[in-house]
Every structure is written in structure tokens, then in C-alpha cells.
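Allow me, if you will, to draw on your knowledge of protein folds for a short while. I have a record of one protein: its chain in single-letter code and its fold written as C-alpha cells. I should value your view on which stretches of the chain appear to form regular backbone elements. Thank you for your consideration; the sequence and its C-alpha cells are set out here:
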Amino acid sequence: MSAALCCYLLMGKVQSNLQIVSLFILFASACVIEKIIPLDFIKTVIRTFDSNGNESFASSNNVKDSKKKQQEENASLNGKEGDNHIQGALAVLLASFLSGLAGAFSQKNLQGASGSMPGGRNSYLFTIELCAVSILFTGLSMMRSDDGARIRKNGFFDGWTSKTIIPIITNATGGIIVGLVTKYAGTVKKGFALIFGLLISGLLQAFGEGNDNNNKYKSKISKEHVVGGILAAFSLWMHSA
């Protein structure tokens, strides 16, 4: 949603009412996949029926007593936790806006000021420039970090194995693909790809850990994956319609 807003502010790209609704659905699907919005937020009350047919609610009093006791025990911490939640939410909103703003600037550079293909930047060269800037800032931050001190002491390749090259290659390939998607599809469509990427990552993790007999913390395909995937697919269909 922040990408759509920033694209409108910088490039004048207007989203239709249907597309705006699809973006909200996409945001909901991301929250469901990451279990930020739990599907079991409404707890069902266990009902039992006595021999006379009268309806009673089991454990309702126990639930109320336990909640009251817990609230009393945590009363002194509620204020601090509330402040932390507000600060965390503001940080997430700011990061989301900056991400959308960066995506809009990238799209404007790659597609040209008018948002059309002719006159835009080369996506491969643009990706290399972003990598160079990232290396610069990463190097500066490592001058004062523990990781930087460890690298200066043991060398840059300390702890490397043959598997270390895998995330390097996937990260480099992902950067190239992101540049191409931003140039030819736009930042908003890139957001749809991101959500589907989260879904695919969760499914692959569940599949991989499910076949690992030595892992006692196995993941499985949850209903959040299913519902989130359906919402993401529906939002993509709405946005493209």
C-alpha cells in the first residue's frame, strides 16, 4: 500500500477503487501468513447440556478468574508494554513507508520520469549501483560492530563452507530479478510477488522439515498458509482485473 501511495505522489499513477481494495486484501493475506492475525482469535465456548436440556457454559468462570488474576499480576507492566507496542508499530509503519518510497524512486528511475519504458535506466546497471552503495554502508557499520571485529581478527573467509555460497548466489539472483520486476511490472506488482514469496517459503519450510525425522520441531502446512494463499491469489486477480 505504501508503494502505491508513493507511486501516486511521485509518478501520478492512480489505483482504481477495486485495486485499492485488492491491496488491503493483500495486506491481510500477509498478516495471516505471518500469523500476525490469528485465525483462532475468536475462542469457542464449550457447551455442555445437562440431563434436563439446560444449556451451560463449561469453564467460563475459570477463564474469567484466570484472566482477572493475570491482569492483576501484570498491571504494573501494562504501561511499559503498551509503550513498547506503540514504538514498535510506529517503527514498522515508518519502515514500510520508506520501503514504498524507495520502490517508487527505483521505478521512476528504471521506467523514466513518465513511467514508460523508453528512457529508463538499465536494470542490471541500477542493481550494481545499489549493491555498491550497500557494500559501502555495510563496511562502515562493520567498523564498530562485533562481526567486523571478528572479521579483522580471523579474516573475511573464516567459517565459510561450500554451503555459504548458496545464500550469496540466491541473494544476487534475487537482486537482479527485483530490478527486472520493478522495471517491467512496477513496484506494486513487486509487492504481490513478495507475498507469494513468503507463502512459497513457508510451504518449502514445512515440506523440508516434514521429511526430516531428526527435527523434533517440525513445521507443517497450516491453515494460515492455505487462507493466506487464497487471499493473495484473490487480491492479485482483483488488481489485474
